[in-house]
Amino acid sequence: MANKIGRIIIGIVVVCALAFVIYMVLPGQYKNPLKATLQSKTNSNYEDVVGKVKGSLVLKNKEFTYEDMMISATANPAWTMEEISVDDNGNGAYDVYADGYKTTVSFENEDNSDGMVTHTNAHVRLVFHVTKDGSDVKIGDQVIEPDMQIAPEQIEVATSTYKKSDSSTYFQKSLDALCGK
Fold first, then answer.
1. What percent of the chain is predicted at pLDDT more than 90?
2. pLDDT tens-digit profile of 85-125?
């Protein structure tokens, strides 16, 4: 009898280890939606923090929320968050990630007026730095309100990274391209 119980326990351990290895080697387009689903069901702050960011309007594109933009422009959009420094009540700093896959982003090249910058079949990631204080979710010093335009801290398109603080226009151009402009 002890031999059977030992085999069952070993079998469970092997299956769990195999599932973990498979999860770790999954490409992001499959791993991130799974992670988002798990976070939405297990983290009590997920809807407060991520929901406010998803429902915010895209910078200089008032007709799109970030959620609408990611759904229309990308495949397998996933919203995940990482706790940076959070207390027991869920207050503190978070990074919110919006990942989308298999999209084409194209806009005019700043360096060459005849050229275009085009990313085809690209992975897009928007990174938002937010803080939660009670029921308030802030980006920078501003509390995120309904119908408020906010900007991510950075946008990663394929291998390029565009930061909000950069002097180039690629940051806004990439948001406009994702909105279909």
1. 30
2. 988 888 899 999 999 999 988 888 877 776 788 888 889 99
pLDDT (tens digit per residue) in 33-51 = 888 888 889 988 899 899 9
d(CA 126, CA 154) in angstroms, rounded, equals 6
Cα–Cα distance, 23 to 16 (Å, whole number): 11
Structure-block tokens of residue 59: 């910078």
83: Cβ contacts below 8 Å, ≥ 6 apart: 92, 93, 94
d(CA 120, CA 122) in angstroms, rounded, equals 5
114-137 b/e (C-beta count within 10 Å ≥ 16 → b): eeebebeebbbbbbbbbbbeeeeb
Average model confidence (pLDDT) for the chain? 87
Put simply, whether the predicted model's pTM sits higher than 0.70 gets the answer yes
Within 10 angstroms of residue 82's Cβ, the number of other Cβ atoms is 12
What is the sign of the dihedral through the CA atoms of 174, 175, 180 and 181?
negative
Count of other CB atoms within 10 angstroms of residue 61? 19
